[in-house]
Amino acid sequence: DISAQRGLFGELWVLQQLILSGGSSVIEYWKGPLNEMHDFKSKSTHLEIKTTTTLPPQINISSAKQMYTIDDKSLYLIIVQLEESDQGITLPKLVNLVEHLCSKNEDYALLQSLLNEVGYNHNDSMEYTTPYIITKISELEIDDTSPVISRSEGSALHSNISELKYRVDLTGILMEEID
After folding, report:
1. In whole angstroms, how large is the CA radius of gyration of the chain?
2. DSSP-derived secondary structure letter, 30
3. In whole angstroms, how far apart are CA 98 and each of 14, 27, 64, 114, 173?
4. pLDDT value for 64
5. Which residues contact 168 (CB under 8 A, 6 or more apart)?
6. Where are the beta strands (DSSP E) in the chain?
7. C-alpha angle 128/48/4, rounded to 5°?
8. CB-based contacts of 93: which residues, under 8 Å, 6+ apart?
9. How far apart are CA 79 and CA 10, in angstroms?
10. Measured between alpha carbons, how far is 67 from 61 in angstroms, rounded to an integer?
11. Residue 23 Rama label (left phi>0; alpha psi -120 to 50; beta)
12. Could you report the per-residue pLDDT of 138-173, keeping only the tens digit for each?
C-alpha cells in the first residue's frame, strides 16, 4: 500500500538523520515497526512521524492514545512532507543509505529485523519505484493545547469506544520547520 510505503519512507528519513547525528546505535530507538505507540522512543523523548503528500498537510492519527503525552517525556510530532519527483529517491535507495550508516553488525542486523517486521523485503525493491523529494520537515511539541485528542479529552470518551482514528488538518498550526 502506497500510504504504508510513504510512512516507512518518512520514518527511515528521520532514522537516517538521527544516525547521522548520534551514531548507528540510535536504531534501537526506532519502534515504529514494532507497533508501539510512538515511532521513536528514547529515555526522555518520543517522536511520532507522520508523512504526507497533501497540501496543506493533513495527517492520520491511528489511535486516540497516539498523541497522549507521557508525564516525564517530551512528545514531538514530526511532519515529513513529500512530493513525487524524478529528482527524488526511491524507498529502496533510502533503505540502502540507512544500511550503509549502520556501522556495527548488531545495528545492521537490528535494521534488517525491523524492516522485516514492517514488511519491507529487498526482493520486492523493483515494486517501490516512486521517487520522492522532501519538501518540508516540521515539528510540533505535543501538549494540552495541540490540535490532537489529549489524554484528558480521550479519557472523557465513553468506555465502550475501543478504537478511534482521526485526521488532522494542520492549516494555520504554528509548527517549527526543521532543516
Report:
1. 16
2. B
3. 10, 10, 31, 12, 31
4. 84
5. 58, 59, 61, 147, 148
6. 40-41, 45-52, 58-61, 74-89, 132-141, 166-169, 176-178
7. 20
8. none
9. 8
10. 8
11. left
12. 999 999 889 999 888 988 989 899 889 999 999 888
